[in-house]
Write a structure and sequence with these properties.
This protein has helices at residues 11-28, 72-77, 106-123, 137-143, 166-171, 173-177, 193-199, 209-226, 238-250, 263-274, 292-301, 322-330, 392-397, 407-421, 424-444, 471-480, 490-495, 508-535; strands at residues 3-7, 49-55, 58-66, 91-99, 127-133, 146-147, 152-153, 158-165, 182-183, 230-235, 255-260, 279-283, 304-310, 312-313, 318-319, 335-339, 356-360, 371-376, 448-449, 460-464, 483-484, 497-501. It is an alpha/beta fold and 536 residues long.
């Protein structure tokens, strides 16, 4: 935990980059002439992206990556692809791999390389080329680099063209000991080996008795998990499930009420508009809760026949009170629809009395995305006015198999639900404890997290940043360090928020390492902001 990694962004970074560049490629490797300033600005500096290895506030190592053609290596040996037996589709060049002499132990080098691999994969590159100095050839090989052309340069500074691919990295010493990226995304979620193996089983026909038994197993487990009367499994996402619910609400007489206190509440309104539903919306600020008495007053002031709301508002991590809203509606004979995409499998859910509920195979259930779940209270008959694929009655009337379905996704979901159902209390308690650990530590760092007490989903924590700190930049740096967080969605970027999903499996040591890296990065960023303010 002595070192951490980040992208270069500031004038202070630039100064340290030029200094380290000079020390390495003038004084150590005589590739350039000396100068009085003892600073070396790279010829491609403005198009380089620098990945930095930090010790406290000091840059001790760097890698420059560049995708603009021609590469520096192109100018030395001609088009790189002509020298490769199997040219990659998306290539990037690594340059200026450098680290201060006293820190040339395994850990900083391996950490920088893993940061590089993380960055390349996230950016969509499948290979990287470098001019590797011959004096470090053994080290390059250990990191996964493979020579592909004759040496270039001078007698004093000889370089070998080398390439790094995902495959050569994974089979190298560095790749074999690298830690996997820790997933804090609300989706796609981390899947267990058993679930992954289930996905890779041989496919079976959706018309076979074996598939029917498998589907029945999934449905029965989901009904036990939620106390729902019926559930249908569709090929698609939560958006499809909500379209199916909207189609059923369209069949109901009268006007509806949609509760909206976040991005996904707003999306329910959009579903309703697209289906031509007659409805009003009760809106609250993102992160705010609905007052029970206000809901009662609104329902009593108008003749509403249904209500639709999000149980766990993914955009904020706030839990709307499903049980209370259900009781309020049942007392008034108002039909109930709930979006449970981010709550199913994360917190205990009771869908008794809920007419329709939507969810997904990923997120809290811990399987792969690709299956939409629609729970319903009553038996549903087909409706020729509804498009075939959205007609919930078609699924009900055909024992859940009206069209082609993927046995692989269903096998994976069955395995995930079976694991959850083996000890659901421990499953929920583990998520809650994981969430509490993260929340307590992050609040001690001085950050606010949306949602408090029973209104806070244990599955998703939303961290609020002030104007001086960038959630997006922090998310990028966390990824270099091996932590995948949620910050790229438009609604998060607009609000400068970063989210952590605690629904994914991870050890206490994993969480502690993450919190240490988070503390180092945020402390560094705050110090940089403070120094900049004093300077200006």
């Amino acid at each position: 935990m002595t070192y951490f990694y980040r992208l270069a962004r500031t004038k202070q970074d630039e100064e340290q980059i030029h200094k380290l560049n000079y020390e390495t490629f003038v004084e150590e490797i005589p590739q350039h002439l000396p100068n009085e300033d003892r600073r070396l600005r790279d010829q491609f500096h403005n198009s380089n992206t620098y990945l930095l290895c930090m010790k406290d506030s000091k840059v001790i190592g760097m890698i420059a990556v560049r995708s603009t053609r021609p590469f520096s290596l192109d100018k030395k040996i001609g088009p790189v692809e002509e020298k490769l037996a199997n040219p990659p589709r998306y290539l990037v060049e690594i340059r200026l791999l450098s680290i201060e002499a006293q820190y040339r132990t395994g850990r900083p080098f391996l950490g920088m390389l893993q940061a590089l691999v993380n960055w390349c994969l996230k950016a969509g590159y499948d290979a990287a080329v470098i001019s590797g100095t011959v004096r470090e050839l053994k080290l390059y090989r250990q990191l996964g680099f493979v020579p592909f052309a004759e040496p270039t340069g001078t007698a004093e500074a000889t370089f070998i063209p080398m390439i790094l691919t995902k495959e050569t990295y994974e089979t190298s010493v560095a790749g074999r000991i690298a830690k996997p990226i820790l997933n804090f995304l609300p989706g796609p979620t981390t899947t267990s080996k058993a679930v992954q193996q289930a996905l890779c089983t041989d496919s079976i026909s959706h018309r076979s008795p074996a598939y029917s038994r498998l589907l029945m197993s999934v449905q029965e487990q989901l009904k036990v998990l939620t106390a729902a009367c019926h559930v249908q499994v569709l090929q698609g996402t939560g958006t499809l499930a909500n379209d199916v619910v909207a189609a059923q609400l369209k069949r109901l007489p009268g006007k509806g009420l949609i509760l909206n206190n976040g991005e996904f509440g707003a999306r329910l309104c959009d579903h309703a508009r697209r289906f031509g539903l007659e409805f009003d919306s009760l809106e609250r600020a993102w992160g705010d809760l609905f007052d029970t008495e206000e809901i009662e007053a609104v329902l009593d002031s108008n003749l509403y026949s249904w209500i639709w709301f999000v149980h766990c508002e993914t955009s904020t991590g706030v839990l709307n009170d499903l049980d209370t809203i259900r009781d309020v509606c049942l007392a008034r004979s108002v039909r109930i629809a709930a979006d449970c995409a981010s709550s199913l499998g994360t917190v205990p859910i009771n869908l008794e009395g809920v007419d329709f509920a939507s969810s997904v195979s990923g997120k809290g259930l811990g399987s792969f995305s690709g299956l939409a779940l629609v729970f319903h209270e009553q038996d549903i008959q087909p409706d020729p006015e509804i498009p075939r694929y959205l007609d919930l009655g078609n699924y009900s009337a055909t024992e859940g198999i009206p069209y082609t379905q993927s046995s692989n996704l269903l096998h994976a979901l069955d395995k995930a639900i079976f694991a959850l159902m083996s000890d659901p209390e421990n499953h929920y308690d583990t998520i809650r404890k994981r969430s509490d650990t993260l929340r307590t530590s992050i609040e001690r760092m001085g950050y606010q997290i949306l949602g408090q007490g029973i209104s806070a989903s244990p599955g998703i924590l939303t961290i609020i940043f002030n104007e001086e700190e960038s959630a997006h930049q922090l998310g990028e740096d966390l990824f270099l360090n091996g932590y995948r967080t949620h910050y790229e969605s438009k609604y998060l970027r607009e609000r400068n928020w970063l989210q952590l999903a605690a629904m994914n499996e991870m050890s206490d040591d994993d969480i502690n390492r993450f919190l240490e890296v988070l503390k180092r990065l945020t402390s560094f960023n705050r110090e940089q902001t403070r120094e900049f303010s004093i300077y200006n």
